[in-house]
């Protein structure tokens, strides 16, 4: 009788541990999915699609003069060469997609890398920059 009781308790313990492990594994997997970082260079078509998201943050990292000569949509100008560049970028919402571009892709590529290091979850860099933008 004691053997049956002991085996029942042991079996229950094993089943319970198996359940807990599965639940823990599921939670860890869900957490990894939530912290997935997207940092990629995209073409104009995908960039335009991303711009239509209501929470997208469109950032032009060219100089003020370059920006004033023409820019994409309602982009906010944050000059890559400005002394306050990093602090201005830090003011953006890290949980919302950031779309960056420059003249040809160099500065925006560096900016995208910086944003990734700062903890931004979704960063899209326009391939070829403003120079490749077709209106």
Instruction: Report strand order across the widest sheet.
Output: 1-5-4-2-3
Largest sheet: 5 strands, parallel
Look up the CATH topology of the largest domain: Oxidized Rhodanese, domain 1
Low-pLDDT stretches are: none
Secondary structure: number of strands: 5
Q: Helix proportion of residues, in percent?
A: 40-55%
Mean pLDDT: 85
Structural class: alpha/beta
The arrangement of helices and strands along the chain is HEHEHEHEHE
Shape: elongated
Name the CATH class of the largest domain. Alpha Beta
Per DSSP, what share of the residues sits in E-state strands of 2 or more residues? 5-15%
CATH architecture of the largest domain: 3-Layer(aba) Sandwich
Radius of gyration: 24 Å
User: What is the assigned CATH homologous superfamily of the largest domain?
Assistant: Rhodanese-like domain
**Number of structural units classed as domains:** 2
């Amino acid at each position: 009788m004691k053997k049956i009781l002991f085996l029942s308790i042991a079996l229950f313990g094993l089943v319970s541990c198996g359940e807990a492990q599965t639940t823990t594994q599921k939670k860890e997997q869900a957490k990894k999915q939530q912290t997935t970082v997207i940092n990629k260079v995209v073409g104009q078509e995908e960039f335009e699609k991303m711009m239509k998201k209501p929470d997208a943050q469109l950032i032009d990292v060219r100089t003020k003069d370059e920006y004033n000569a023409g820019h994409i949509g309602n982009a906010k100008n944050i000059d890559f060469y400005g002394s306050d560049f990093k602090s201005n970028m830090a003011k953006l919402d890290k949980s919302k997609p950031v779309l960056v571009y420059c003249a040809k892709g160099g500065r925006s590529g560096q900016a995208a890398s910086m944003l990734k290091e700062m903890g931004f979850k979704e960063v899209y860099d326009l391939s070829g920059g403003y120079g490749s933008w077709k209106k």
